[in-house]
Specification:
Length: about 130
């Protein structure tokens, strides 16, 4: 029996959680009517569709169109006002940027540690307990 399907399902769940969590947090912070995982995923899906349509109509102002379209989707799906939808969008963008920065720093730190280990010809060693308390 292979363990690979477990990691595949776990990886997909983790990815969905990382995508939906900032929207859930933003919805809770602004007091939206719905704050569940399913509603957050649905809101992200609808926001992506609206953003795709809006950016195909207005080519030159992608970020602004995305901001306004996401707020509209969050307003409709999460049962909140448009201004609170804007706040959810800004919170989601900030938290997503923070998640990406943390993931990048972990990845780059691991790469740097591996490079340092390769350059100095060492293998990772765990210090044995000294016995002194």
């Amino acid at each position: 029996m292979s363990i690979l399907p477990f990691f595949g399902v776990f990886g997909v769940f983790l990815l969905l959680l990382l995508i939906a969590a900032p929207v859930m947090v933003g919805a809770r912070w602004v007091g939206a009517g719905y704050t569940s995982f399913g509603r957050a995923l649905l809101a992200i899906f609808v926001a992506t569709l609206i953003t795709g349509i809006a950016t195909s109509l207005f080519h030159r102002s992608g970020t602004l169109v995305s901001l306004l379209a996401d707020a509209l989707a969050y307003m409709l799906i999460l049962q909140t006002t448009y201004l609170r939808g804007l706040a959810v969008t800004l919170i989601q963008w900030a938290l997503t940027a923070l998640i990406v920065l943390v993931a990048l720093s972990v990845a780059l730190g691991s790469v740097a540690a591996g490079k340092n280990m390769l350059l100095h010809g060492g293998t990772p060693q765990v210090d044995a307990p000294s016995g002194d308390v």
